[in-house]
C-alpha cells in the first residue's frame, strides 16, 4: 500500500496549508471509515447527505491515523494536528491514486462488462498468480471511490493488478481506465444492466468501450467476439490496439471445442490446446469468462497448458454461483449478488441441465435498473421456463411478480408462488425442500436474497 511522507502526500494532493511541523510523518495506507482506522493511515473524510466524516477526524487521529484530509469549505479545521486542507476530499483521493499509480512499475489489467466481470477478475487473478505477484479488486471496490482505494492499497512489489471497473452512467469507465492506465482490458459482454441510465444496449456498448480510452498504446483488448455491438465498434475504432476475441463460435481466437457439465463445475477443451481443463465453477457461461481470462494470461506469457493448475486454485467472490447445503439436505446455488436478464437466463439454464435431482426450485427476485421495459423483461423470464426441467418457482418483489405472471402460463398456477414478504417466502419454501432438491437463489443485489440462503442454509 502507499507509504509516503506527509510532505510528499501534500504535494500529491496539492494541499493548501503548511505541513512543515509534521513533514517527516510517514503515511501508510488510506482509510475512509473512521471505524476501520489502522496505525499510520491517512484518514479521508467525505461530506455525505446524512453524515459528515469531518466530525471523526480528531477521533481518527487519536485512534492512530497519522494525518487526515480536510475539505476547505468545512469550517473550523483542528489546529496543531497533521491536517491537509484540499479543495475536495474525493478529488484529492482520486488524484493521490493517480499519482501513486504513475510511480508504480506495475502492469494493470482492466475488466468491465454487463455480467461476469467479477468472476472473470477472480479467474484472471488465479491464472496470473502462476507466474506473478498479483493483487485484485476486492469486493465491489470498482467505482470512482473503490478503484482509487484499490490502487492505493497496491504493494510496491506487486507485479500485476487486476482491476474491475463498474459503472452506472456514461463517462464513468473512461474516468476509471484513465486512472488505472491498463496494459490489457477485457469486456466480458453487453447485457441489459443499466438500461435505465443508458437507454439501449448500443448505449451500454459505447459506455463499456470507454475502457479503451485509458489503454496503453498497442495494448490488448479482449472482447466477446459473438457480440455484434462490440465487434462493429472495435472495427471502427481509430486507436492503436491489439484485439483478441473469445466466444462460442469458431470465428473467435479462443473458443470451446468440448463442454461437459459436472456437478461442481465444468470440464472443457479449447481450440488452442490439447489439454483438458476442469473449472470448479458452476455454469457453462462461466467457461466464456474463463476464456477471456486465459487470453489475458497468455498475453502475459503463461502457456495454456499450465493454466490447469491456476483454474484449480480459483477463489471466487461470495454469492456468485456458490453451492451450499441446506438444513434439510437440499443443495442451494447462491447467486444473489446481482442479476440481469442475460445472467438470470444463464443461471436458469444451468439448473435446468444439472442432473441427479428429483426437484428443482427457482427463487427469483427483482432485476433492477432495466428501464421502461422492466416489466416485460421479467415477464419473459417466467414465460421462458421449461416445465419439464423446473418444478417450482418462488418470486420476491413487485417486479418478481411479473416473472410469476409469465411462469403461470407454462408451469401452471399450482407451481408458482409470488411473495412481497421475505419471511413468508422462506417459511413456504422450507415446506417443500428435501435432500433431493436443488434451489437457485438469484436477484439484483438490492433485493438481499442472500437472506433467504442464510435462512435455509445448514
Tell me about this structure.
This protein is an alpha/beta fold and 458 residues long. It folds into 3 domains: 3-92, MurE/MurF, N-terminal domain (Udp-n-acetylmuramoylalanyl-d-glutamate--2,6- Diaminopimelate Ligase, Chain: A, domain 1), CATH 3.40.1390; 104-312, Mur-like, catalytic domain (UDP-N-acetylmuramoyl-L-alanine:D-glutamate ligase, 3-Layer(aba) Sandwich); 322-456, Protein-Tyrosine Phosphatase, Chain A (Alpha-Beta Complex). The protein is 33% helix and 20% strand. It contains 16 helices and 21 strands. The strands form 5 sheets. Strands 8-9-7-10-11-12 form a 6-stranded parallel sheet, sandwiched between helices. Strand 14 (266-270) and strand 15 form a beta hairpin. The protein is globular.
Outline the fold blueprint.
Blueprint: E1 3-5, H1 6-13, E2 26-28, E3 30-31, E4 42-43, H2 57-63, E5 67-71, E6 83-86, H3 89-103, E7 107-112, H4 117-128, E8 134-136, H5 146-152, E9 160-164, H6 172-180, E10 184-187, H7 195-198, H8 201-208, E11 220-224, H9 228-236, E12 242-246, E13 256-261, E14 266-270, E15 276-279, H10 285-299, H11 307-312, E16 322-325, E17 331-335, H12 341-353, E18 359-365, H13 374-383, E19 392-396, H14 400-411, E20 416-419, H15 422-430, E21 437-442, H16 450-456
Parallel strand pairs: 3-4, 4-5, 5-6, 7-9, 7-10, 8-9, 10-11, 11-12, 17-21, 18-19, 18-21, 19-20
Antiparallel strand pairs: 1-2, 13-14, 14-15, 16-17
What general form does the structure show? globular
Low-confidence stretches: none
Mind telling me the CATH class of the largest domain? Alpha Beta
User: How would you sum up the major sheet?
Assistant: 6 strands, parallel
Can you give the helix content as a percent range?
25-40%
- What's the helix count? 16
CA-atom Rg in angstroms:
24 Å
Strand order of the largest sheet: 8-9-7-10-11-12
How many discrete domains?
Answer: 3
Please identify, by name, the CATH architecture of the largest domain: 3-Layer(aba) Sandwich
By secondary-structure content and strand pairing, the structural class works out as: alpha/beta
Hey, roughly how much beta strand do the residues contain?
A: 15-25%
Average pLDDT level: 92
Q: CATH homologous superfamily of the largest domain - what is it?
A: Mur-like, catalytic domain
- Assembly of the depicted chains: single chain
Q: What separation lies between the terminal Cα atoms?
A: 38 Å
Number of strands: 21
At CATH level 3, the topology of the largest domain is: UDP-N-acetylmuramoyl-L-alanine:D-glutamate ligase
Amino acid at each position: 500500500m502507499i507509504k509516503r511522507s506527509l510532505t510528499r502526500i501534500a504535494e500529491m494532493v496539492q494541499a493548501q496549508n503548511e505541513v512543515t511541523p509534521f513533514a517527516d510523518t510517514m503515511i501508510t495506507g488510506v482509510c475512509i471509515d473512521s471505524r476501520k482506522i489502522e496505525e499510520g493511515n491517512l484518514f479521508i473524510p467525505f461530506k455525505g447527505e446524512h453524515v459528515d466524516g469531518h466530525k471523526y477526524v480528531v477521533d481518527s487521529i487519536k485512534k492512530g491515523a497519522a494525518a487526515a484530509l480536510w475539505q476547505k469549505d468545512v469550517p473550523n479545521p483542528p489546529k496543531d494536528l497533521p491536517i491537509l486542507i484540499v479543495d475536495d476530499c474525493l478529488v484529492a483521493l482520486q488524484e493521490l491514486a493517480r499519482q501513486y499509480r504513475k510511480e508504480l512499475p506495475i502492469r494493470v489489467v482492466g475488466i468491465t462488462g454487463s455480467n461476469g466481470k467479477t468472476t472473470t477478475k477472480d479467474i484472471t487473478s488465479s491464472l496470473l498468480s502462476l507466474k506473478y505477484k498479483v493483487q485484485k479488486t476486492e469486493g465491489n471496490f470498482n467505482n470512482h471511490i473503490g478503484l482509487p482505494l484499490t490502487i492505493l492499497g497496491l504493494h510496491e512489489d506487486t507485479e500485476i493488478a487486476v482491476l474491475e471497473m463498474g459503472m452506472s452512467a456514461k463517462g464513468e469507465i473512461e474516468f476509471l481506465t484513465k486512472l488505472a492506465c491498463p496494459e490489457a482490458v477485457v469486456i466480458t459482454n453487453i447485457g441489459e444492466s443499466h438500461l435505465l441510465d443508458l437507454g439501449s444496449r448500443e448505449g451500454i456498448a459505447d459506455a463499456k468501450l470507454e475502457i479503451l480510452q485509458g489503454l496503453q498504446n498497442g495494448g490488448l483488448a479482449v472482447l466477446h467476439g459473438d457480440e455484434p455491438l462490440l465487434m462493429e465498434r472495435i472495427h471502427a475504432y481509430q486507436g492503436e490496439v491489439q484485439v483478441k476475441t473469445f466466444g462460442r463460435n469458431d470465428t473467435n481466437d479462443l473458443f470451446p471445442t468440448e463442454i461437459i457439465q459436472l456437478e461442481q463445475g465444468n470440464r472443457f477443451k479449447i481450440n488452442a490446446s490439447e489439454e483438458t481443463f476442469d473449472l470448479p465453477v458452476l455454469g457453462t457461461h462461466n467457461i466464456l469468462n474463463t476464456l477471456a481470462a486465459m487470453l489475458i494470461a497468455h498475453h502475459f506469457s503463461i502457456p495454456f497448458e499450465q493454466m490447469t493448475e491456476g483454474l484449480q486454485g480459483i477463489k471466487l467472490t461470495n454469492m456468485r454461483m456458490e453451492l451450499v447445503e441446506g438444513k434439510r439436505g437440499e443443495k442451494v446455488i447462491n447467486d444473489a449478488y446481482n442479476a440481469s436478464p442475460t445472467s438470470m437466463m444463464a443461471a436458469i439454464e444451468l439448473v435446468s441441465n444439472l442432473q441427479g435431482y428429483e426437484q428443482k426450485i427457482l427463487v427469483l427476485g427483482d432485476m433492477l435498473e432495466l428501464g421502461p421495459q422492466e416489466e416485460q423483461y421479467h415477464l419473459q423470464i417466467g414465460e421462458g421456463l421449461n416445465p419439464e426441467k423446473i418444478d417450482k418457482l418462488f418470486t420476491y418483489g413487485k417486479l418478481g411478480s411479473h416473472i410469476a405472471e409469465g411462469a403461470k402460463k407454462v408451469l401452471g398456477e399450482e407451481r408458482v408462488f409470488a411473495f412481497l414478504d421475505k419471511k413468508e417466502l422462506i417459511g413456504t419454501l422450507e415446506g417443500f425442500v428435501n435432500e433431493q432438491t436443488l434451489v437457485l437463489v438469484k436477484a439484483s443485489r438490492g433485493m438481499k436474497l442472500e437472506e433467504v440462503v442464510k435462512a435455509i442454509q445448514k
